[in-house]
Amino acid sequence: MKKNPTNGREPILEAAIRVASRDGVLSMTLDHVAQEAKMSKGGLLYHFASKDELVTAMIEHFGRKAEQAMNTAVAEDVEPEGRWIRAIFNTALGKTCKGRRQANYSGADEGTDTSRFFMALIAAIVVNPKLILPVKDIVERVRARILADKNGQKDLMTWLAIDGLWLWQLVGIISVDDPLWKKIVKELRNRTLPLPKERGVKKKVRSRTIN
After folding, report:
1. Other CB atoms closer than 10 Å to residue 201's CB: what's the count?
2. Cβ distance 17 to 117 under 8 Å?
């Protein structure tokens, strides 16, 4: 029975994310990733022939986990209208409402320092803009799903606001302990809540007596 190559790749990709979070994507080496994954460099090269190939696969892997987290949130949402914007809110900011100290725009494990990873990723994209392509593909898919909703344009603006707050937190402009953070998160959460369903209230028509 042949082994599924994907099974051997995932631990390497998770190790690469940890190394990139610690050392930066640009400073990450195959040797360090192999050491983090507790395997030989030859074993790593069996799955990834170069650092460029590993970095691209790492970003795709991280992006897939973020998309899977949103897909899960959508599947668990019983209200069809606006569930993609709610999934984005819950993935990016929702957990900070429950005592989490960091906004987590991904499906990453609790032990992954997503803040440092995103900073490292942004720095790498500045040097090599092609690295944004896997992320761009995911964003375009989610954007299309949001715009398919009745209030899609409004929800898209809310998404931009969520991203802006998340980016502020990422670079240290605002923290989850800031009272302003809590106010903004509350407002964004309210914007993602399902609209109250219209109730069939019958209007009373006053009858007129014709003399």
Report:
1. 6
2. yes
32-69: buried (b, 16+ CB within 10 Å) or exposed (e) per residue? bbbebbebeeeebeebbeeeeebbbbbbbbbbebbbeb
For residues 139 and 19, give the distance between their C-alpha atoms in angstroms, rounded to a whole number.
Answer: 25
Work out the end-to-end distance of the chain between its first and last CA atoms, rounded to an integer number of angstroms.
94
How far apart, in whole angstroms, are the C-alpha atoms of residue 188 and residue 108?
Answer: 23
Look at residue 114 in the predicted model and tell me its pLDDT: 79
Q: What proportions of the chain, in percent to the nearest 5, are helix, strand and coil?
A: 65, 0, 35
Residue 173 CB: number of other CB atoms within 10 A? Answer: 10
Which helix (H) or strand (E) segment is 183 a member of? helix 179-192
Residue written as token pair 């992006």: 63
Count CA atoms within 13 Å of residue 134 on its CB side: 18
From the CA atom positions of the chain, what is the Rg in Å? 22
> Look-up: residue for tokens 């994310």?
17
Task: Report the mean per-residue pLDDT for the chain.
Answer: 84
Provide the pLDDT for residue 97. 56
Indicate the length of the chain as a whole number.
211
Give the least confident one: 3-12, 37-46, 148-157, 187-196: 3-12
- pTM as predicted: 0.78
